[in-house]
Amino acid sequence: MQHASTDKLMHDLRAVVADAEELLKATASQTGERVEKVRVRAEESLRAARARMQEAGEAAQARAREAAREVDHQVHENPWTAVGVAAGVGLIVGILLGRR
Hints:
It is a single chain. By secondary structure, the protein is mainly alpha-helical. The chain has one domain. The protein is about 90% helix and about 0% strand. The protein is built from three helices and no strands. Helix 1 runs antiparallel to helix 2 and helix 2 crosses helix 3. The protein is elongated. The two termini are about 25 Å apart.
């Protein structure tokens, strides 16, 4: 559940960034002090959003690497348990596919 909500948040954030970039391009020819202030603020927000997306991606990669290390450790510590779990999962998948 957490993974799905994180993925949706990242998708939504990417959409906002893309929309903001498009808006900045569309208003590039607009002039005036108020428009310039809004553009500067939007560009700053866009930079911050890109940085947060980068950080979130790096954090997700780090969590995935740590999870992989933990699974590897558990498999090495309990090889027969890992074989049993893999066989059980294979049996369940086989049964489910056989019903189609």
